Amino acid sequence: MTANYAIHAENLAMVYGRGPTRVEALKGIELAVRPGDLWAIMGPSGSGKTTLLTILGLVTTPTGGSLRIDGENIYEGRQPDLARLRREKIGFIFQSPNLIPFLTVRQNVLLPLHLAGVRGQPAEARARELLGYLDIADRADLHPNQLSGGEQQRVAIARALANNPKIILADEPTASLDTERALNVMRLLRRVTNEQNAAVLVVTHDHRLIKEVDRVVQVIDGRIVNPASDAPTGAREHPQDHE
Fold this sequence. Notes:
Layout: E1 7-16, E2 23-33, E3 38-42, H1 49-56, E4 64-69, E5 72-73, H2 82-89, E6 90-94, H3 105-115, H4 120-133, H5 149-161, E7 167-171, H6 179-196, E8 199-203, E9 215-220, E10 223-224
Parallel strand pairs: 3-8, 3-9, 6-7, 7-8
Antiparallel strand pairs: 1-2, 1-4, 4-5, 9-10
Helix pairs in contact: 3-4, 3-5, 5-6
């Protein structure tokens, strides 16, 4: 059976520089992530994790390999509109929530909707839905500096979900949070995978999170060093994995 993948990367490579300054940041990365998957990408600093995330987020162009995002072939044949794909299919969450300080919580969530051309009542209804979904509707008219760190991260997740993306990419989203808040963020991401059928990849050094994800992919020196089919104990598996 041919699986439908949210992300399908084959032999991805990324090389910077030439000659004595040549650096292979990624070497033959293979990933096949389905809708509803919640994966952690782990590895030491400088291993290539963030480079991989920027390639999967269509921010950086790899120097080799192929990539499909929600079935669209990114680098072969006719080039798709990458800005459109990022806007419509990919949500980003960062270590710092990066909320706009002079906008309210509601306005921060409305921003990506407005950029996608969704305005008026449909945009307002979506913002209310997300703030309610993440239990911060009562914070809608506050500014970021009036929120706790965990609340700010929930607003960042709401913003990332605004356009119903197929893929959520998170770069160290819990690094500045205590254990309880970090686990709460991961449980919210689990809700997203389960209820909205999004594929979520979390780049992290945080071993507290392993029990919350389906799979851990280890990246060292630009390579995946464990088979992506190796899941942590108790992680959810897909029936297709055994076909």
